[in-house]
Specification:
Helices cover about 45% and strands about 15% of the residues. It has about 500 residues and is of the alpha+beta class. Strand 12 and strand 13 form a beta hairpin. Helix 8 runs antiparallel to helix 9. The structure holds 2-oxoglutaric acid and fe (ii) ion (FE2).
């Protein structure tokens, strides 16, 4: 079972944790009871012993000795074999299937690293100090810092590895007991520095390890390798600071995630409006017009406020919860696969089964005047630790089928997000804040049916909070006359 890709399911892991501790405590109580019992048995058996060799002159005593030694032996075997650990071991093996695998632990560390890169956080601040609204700083153990460093290293994030190693080192220096040693930290730091081209630091640190333990073969080998490199490739990048968080390559996306604010000139902003809309006189909206707000002009993105009620949202989450499974993405050949570029769990709610899903379709049809006959069923998403969806198009080669392509996306926010988790459009600079109960809509295709390059978008990593959204993808077939309709605000 995978937990980290859904914040909602992380709660299950807390229960696994509590059960494990409870069973262990119960086991200890049983062991103590058992020891008491063994002590009582010991006392009884001692009472049956012959004290003095002289007693053996009495034939009765001699008989007792011969007889009781067997009796005692049997008792000892019997009572020591009755161990409470059997029940406990059984409980443990049933917990085993609920435990996260090491692979998952590594991916959570990768989630932390992603958050650090995107939101520019030093280990100190991601552990709580710099995070507004965090009650309690969550400190990591030196072993844990080392593990995060190792995952960073394995993912070629060498500077982040250095930062986490520094953290681990400082904790070790303060005398925190740990499995990892200062030498382990130095060696991994040396490798990271070496990978960043800082051969001097790599050699320095490895020499320190060798000085302390001249028999450390791994260190000796590394040292040779580093020295050789310094001779053969004497160019090194002195300018690289080992302790800075590097800027990811996709800057506009990252900057939008960080600020969570759209970037638009005031002049253009003044042309954005809020209105009550009846979608050109739809009878179902005449008495309850929808609150419509322009989020962006080109491509046009609008938000519908109070699109769903609290009860509707609770219902959707309740229906989706047991169906959640790891989200996948499709490639051009329409093959679906799991990737760390999309960390969430999702469930499909079918219009024909679920009244709340069909009601949503009706609302979307009313508000947008688009035909829902070919639209996809509602996809409900719950994000996980550092959960995100990297920049992507909702439409394209891998998506298109007999219903056409995904002409429009309606994205419904089923929760607020405390920090992070905005939906951003890096090509244009739009950032949509998750607002619980609201829905945003945009077109993925141009009027000519081609994918609109500007519709590239991304769900930023969730830093803090539990992000729920639902997607409704509208397909091209059925919209042939609707998108051109003059009553349609999407022209
Ligand atoms: O969660 C978000 O903000 C965006 C989700 C999205 O783009 C998608 O699921 O296709
Ligand atoms: Fe999307």
């Amino acid at each position: 079972h995978e937990y980290y890709s859904s914040t909602e399911e992380m709660e299950d892991l807390m229960i696994v944790d509590q059960t494990l501790m409870l069973n262990f405590a119960r086991y200890i109580r049983e062991e103590i009871k058992h020891i008491h019992k063994l002590n009582r048995v010991l006392k009884v058996l001692r009472g049956l012993s012959v004290d003095q060799p002289s007693d053996l002159s009495n034939p009765i005593t001699a008989y007792q000795l011969v007889n009781r030694i067997k009796w005692k032996f049997n008792d000892i075997v019997r009572y020591t074999q009755q161990r409470p650990s059997d029940d406990f071991l059984e409980a443990l093996s049933s917990t085993l299937k609920d435990l996260p695998e090491q692979k998952e632990v590594d991916r959570v560390a990768l989630g932390l690293i992603r958050l650090q890169e995107i939101y520019r956080l030093e280990p100190q601040s991601i552990m709580g100090h710099g995070l507004a609204g965090t009650k309690q700083a969550s400190r990591l153990h030196p072993d844990e810092c080392f593990h995060v460093a190792k995952v960073a290293y394995e993912n070629q994030k060498f500077q982040l590895a250095c930062l986490w190693l520094q953290e681990s080192y400082q904790l070790l220096q303060k005398g925190n007991a740990a499995r990892v040693s200062i030498s382990d930290v130095r060696l991994l730091f040396a490798s990271s520095a070496f990978s960043l081209g800082d051969f001097d630091t790599a050699i320095d640190l490895t020499e320190q390890v060798v000085d302390e333990d001249p028999a450390n073969e791994e260190a000796l080998l590394q040292l040779l390798r580093y020295r050789l490199h310094r001779v053969t490739q004497p160019i090194f990048f002195r300018t690289i600071d080992l302790f800075t968080i590097p800027e990811p390559s996709n800057m506009s996306y990252v900057a939008l995630c960080r600020s969570q604010r759209s970037r638009m000139t005031p002049h253009r902003q003044r042309a954005l409006f809020c209105r009550y809309s009846t979608a050109g006189g739809n009878p179902r909206l005449m008495y309850a017009p929808v609150k419509e707000e322009d989020e962006w002009d080109h491509p046009r993105i609008v938000r519908y406020h109070d699109f769903l009620s609290e009860q509707e949202m609770d219902m959707i989450k309740m229906m989706a919860r047991p169906e959640l499974s790891r989200s996948e993405v499709v490639n051009l050949e329409k093959n679906a696969y799991v990737t760390e570029n999309r960390v969430s769990k999702s469930a499909v709610l079918y219009d024909v089964i679920d009244p709340s899903a069909s009601r949503i379709s009706q609302r979307i049809a009313d508000i947008t005047s688009l035909d829902m006959g070919t639209a996809e069923n509602l996809q409900v998403l719950n994000y996980g630790v550092g959960g995100h969806f990297g920049p992507h198009y909702d439409a394209g080669e891998g998506i298109r089928d007999e219903r056409g392509d995904r002409i429009a996306t309606v994205l419904i926010y089923l929760s607020d997000v405390e920090v992070g988790g905005a939906t951003v459009f890096p090509e244009v600079g739009a950032a949509l804040q998750p607002i619980k109960g609201s829905a945003v809509m945009w077109f993925n295709l141009l009027q000519n049916g081609e994918v609109d390059d500007l519709s590239l978008h991304s769900g930023c990593p969730v830093f803090k909070g539990n992000k729920w959204v639902a997607n409704k993808w509208v397909r091209e077939r059925g919209q042939e006359f609707r998108r051109r309709c003059s009553l349609n605000p999407w022209e």
